[in-house]
Amino acid sequence: MAGPPVDPPPAALAPGERCTAEEALAALREVLDPEYPVSIVDLGLIRGVAVQGDTVRVRITFTSMGCPCVDLIQDDITARLRRLPGVRQVDLEVVWEPWSRADITAEGSRRLRRLGVV
Fold it and tell me: How far are the Cα atoms of 5, 14, 31, 67 from residue 50, in angstroms, in the given order?
């Protein structure tokens, strides 16, 4: 009986071949908010990224505690980061820091304006 799909194990890495926090942040730019096609980085949701060994730690807030997309975004973050070289674990910390329009990057504002949101 077939079970759920299983991600293949990460490829063997040469010593020192690990992703950096900057590479992890760049990967997070590919994770889009499900409601608007704007990255979670450009929306200002990411509050910190750190890489320690094979673990990427991400601090994230959301626009509201009632955001219906929290689980979906977290799943997308984990899936994207696990595709980076050497990443075996992703730790997400939801910090619920106040979020405002001021957190949106210039690129995020440009994309939202193009969509007629701001």
Answer: 28, 21, 17, 25
Residues paired with residue 93 on neighbouring β-strands, in sequence order:
59
32 beta partners: 39
pTM listed for this prediction: 0.82
Q: Write out 66-101 in H/E/C secondary structure.
A: CCCCHHHHHHHHHHHHCCCCCCCEEEEEECCCCCCH
Read off the pLDDT of residues 37-79 as tens digits, 9 standing for 90 and up: 999 999 999 999 999 999 999 999 998 888 888 999 999 999 9
Q: How far is it, in rounded angstroms, from Cα 7 to Cα 30?
A: 19
List phi, psi (to 5°) of 50.
-140, 145
Q: Residue 63 is which amino acid? A: T
Buried-exposed string 96-118: b where 16+ CB fall within 10 A, e elsewhere? eeebeeebbeeebbebbeeeeee
Q: Which of 52, 69, 37 is nearest to 60 (CA)?
A: 69
